[in-house]
Specification:
This protein is mainly β. It contains no helices and 19 strands.
Length: 219
């Protein structure tokens, strides 16, 4: 009985066509993984019926279009990976994913700014928005993401200074801001930092010696 199915993993095959709408009938589904296939077309709004869905992985396909606003109903999501597709439009502005821990949207064609709603995903541990057409500044409210371990904002069109509120991210281990248009001094950061990438910007000043005792990589 497909209505009782909790995990559907078909990653790394040669599946083509669109994401089938009948998946929305699998009301018990908690994991849907269709990554690394040849799926194309827009995302079905009908997936919003999967209210128990925790993991949704559609990355590395030929999918296009915008993210359905109806997906705000996916209130059980902990992991959403949509990277390396052809999505466009603005980033979702809902804050209806209270359990979200991983959000990977890199290597798409998203535009606009980083919504402040993202800073209300209080359980977020990994946020990767790299290589999109996102502009503007990093919201000062970023400091409210106390669980954040990895923040990747590479290859965007971000400007201004890096917000000093980054120092409030006590669990942050990896920060990548490469290839943007940031200016000003580097902000103070968590002493837990392991990987720091800030090349390709207009930062000035110096990094205090000994500030990051765990640092393994900096460029």
């Amino acid at each position: 009985n497909l209505r009782q199915l909790q995990t559907l993993s078909l990653e790394g095959n040669s599946l083509n066509g669109t994401v089938p709408s009948f998946l929305s009938k699998m009301s018990s589904l908690k994991t849907l993984a269709l990554s690394d296939n040849q799926l194309h077309g827009p995302l079905p709004t009908s997936l919003s019926a999967l209210t128990q869905l925790s993991t949704l992985a559609l990355d590395r396909n030929e999918l296009v279009g915008t993210l359905p606003t109806q997906w705000a109903l996916l209130s059980s999501l902990t992991s959403l990976t949509l990277h390396e597709c052809h999505f466009f439009g603005t980033l979702p502005t809902n804050d209806a994913w209270p359990l979200l821990e991983l959000l990977s949207l890199h290597t798409n064609e998203f535009s606009g700014v980083i919504p402040t709603s993202f800073t209300r995903f209080f359980r977020l541990r990994v946020l990767d928005l790299s290589r999109n057409r996102i502009s503007g500044t990093v919201p000062a409210q970023i400091g409210s993401l106390k669980e954040l371990r990895v923040l990747r904002l590479e290859g965007l069109m971000l400007t201004g200074s890096a917000p000093p509120q980054l120092v409030a991210l006590n669990e942050l281990q990896e920060l990548s801001l490469t290839d943007n248009a940031f200016t000003g001094p580097l902000p103070p950061l968590s002493k837990t930092m392991v990987r720091l990438r800030v090349n390709g910007n207009k930062f000035h000043g110096s990094v205090p010696a000994g500030q990051y005792p765990e640092l393994l990589l900096m460029d």
